[in-house]
Amino acid sequence: MMGIEKQNSDRQYSLLLEQISTLMAGAKRHLAAAINSTLIETYWHIGKHIVEFEQDGNTRAKYGDKLLVNLSKDLTVSLGKGFSKSNLFNMRLFYMRFPIFQAVPGKLNWTVLVEIIRIDNELERNFYLAETVNENWSSRQLIRQKERGLFMQLALGKSKEQILSLSQKGNVVENPEDVIKSTY
Q1: What are residue 60's phi and psi, to 5 degrees?
Q2: Which of 57, 140, 149, 171 has the most CB atoms around its CB within 10 Å?
Q3: Cα 51 to the chain's mean position, in Å?
Q4: Contact of 130 with 154, CB cutoff 8 Å
Q5: Considering the entire predicted model, what is its pTM?
Q6: CA distance linking residue 87 with residue 93, whole number of Å
Q7: Cβ proximity of 106 and 41 under 8 Å
Q8: Measured between alpha carbons, how far is 58 from 61 in angstroms, rounded to an integer?
């Protein structure tokens, strides 16, 4: 009889371990997502402060390379890593590409956003943004699709309205034949 009680106790203990492990894994995922969204919002605000400082109430900026160099040095001394000149440039560009923070999809990480904001063409940028969200692309997948010229491949032979739709919704597959004809 003692053996059965021990087996039940062992199973219950294993279940307890599994429940706690699952709970902790979920908490870590939630925490990572919260940190990511807070960091991205903070980077957006830093970009906003830089742009507003540069413009000083003017409609056009008196942008100088020295500002980012000096900010990089001073912020790195006072706050630590993460404030290279290129990262500050990206924060500035992030704000300029997304002047309304609520327009930024919440699931993206900074590496993916940097790849997207570096695209000059707004239609192309919006297409890759929509595709990244729709297809849950990693930064590597996004880079690979950009290097392949996916947007240009799909945009070839389309009307202006179709290209606008492509940039807003991404590549929408409506019937099975579209997948076969697709550049994938």
Answers
A1: -110, 145
A2: 171
A3: 21
A4: no
A5: 0.76
A6: 10
A7: no
A8: 7
